[in-house]
Amino acid sequence: MRLILLLLGSTLAAQDAREIVQRSVDRDQLNWLRMKDYTWVARLTDRHLDNLGNVKSEDKQAWETVVISGEPCRRMLERDGKPLPADEQRKQQEKLDRTVAKLERESPQERERRLAKEEKERIEDRRFLREIPDLYSFHLVGAAKIDGRDVWVIDAAPKPGYQPRQSDARPLLKIKGRIWIDQEEYQWVRLEAETTGTISYGVFLARLNPGAKLVFEQERVNDRVWLPKREFTRGSGRVGLVKKIQMEEELTWNNYRRFEAESKIVK
What we know:
13-stranded antiparallel sheet; 4 helices
């Protein structure tokens, strides 16, 4: 009897973990749709490392993104940790103004076609994430708190022999990880992942070696939507057939503000 109860408890835990992840994936699709109502500032830092993991060089840049009539528009703010010179700021503003003017000249039919195309591309770009509940085996490790919120802690490992339906989901077979999911809203709060095999991607056949680390975090904005907060990647690999790389990349998003269509974009 005890063995039956243990097996039953194990089965229920596995089912609960999968259901939690399934609901979180569904919420993810909605988040990216709501993101178009916001403007934000992103900061990217690329660190090139030597064989011992020490930083050899560092590149920094920052930009602001606004979504106007469904079109993401980016304006560079900083380079190498410093504000752009005045002439470059002017060029960035002029470029953004031209984009805004072009969108304002669209006819209702043109705008409808463009938005339909962009929505289709957005769905296609994130369709592979819907395979996560089927591709992975999940184990509910326990519970924790992050920023005062109760979260589930779930381990995920690829199922041996699983055949992805989407080609973009194939790299997931070489990634294992742990997910922290908000218990109230079923949102991903934190993800830590590691590559277990070599992953190849891109036209120039970039390769990411086993053991690469990925951290992804989200935050609750305006008490209504969860949006990206931080993404950190560290690993080694190869670009093309010759160039070896070892680097860290950190991307942060902040200063989220609801963007009103009638607002004027200023410096």
